[in-house]
Amino acid sequence: MAPLRITRCVCRGTTFASLLTVATERRWTLPDLVRETGCGAGCGLCLPYLREMLRTGQTEFSEVILE
Questions:
Q1: Residues forming a β-bridge with 61
Q2: CATH for 8-56, options being 1.10.10, 2.60.40, 3.30.1330, 1.25.40
Q3: Hey, where are the domains in the chain?
Q4: What is the pTM of this model?
Q5: What is the pLDDT, as a whole number, of residue 33?
Q6: C-alpha distances in angstroms, 46 versus 1, 59?
Q7: Model confidence at 1: pLDDT above 80
Q8: Are the C-beta atoms of residues 63 and 3 closer than 8 Å to each other?
Q9: Residue 14 has what pLDDT?
């Protein structure tokens, strides 16, 4: 079985790496990121990953994070 790789918001098809770049440049908080990109506003499954991404800079995850 292939290792789990969570790298993007599925609803928007946007990678966490590209989101981190924009969020860092614009000094966005999580609510800013959701409002401006729509990521996290669809099914919401990426919200814990977006939160962790903003906190740590990590853009690829190998485990499921539940809120």
A1: 6
A2: 1.10.10
A3: 8-56
A4: 0.93
A5: 98
A6: 23, 11
A7: no
A8: no
A9: 98
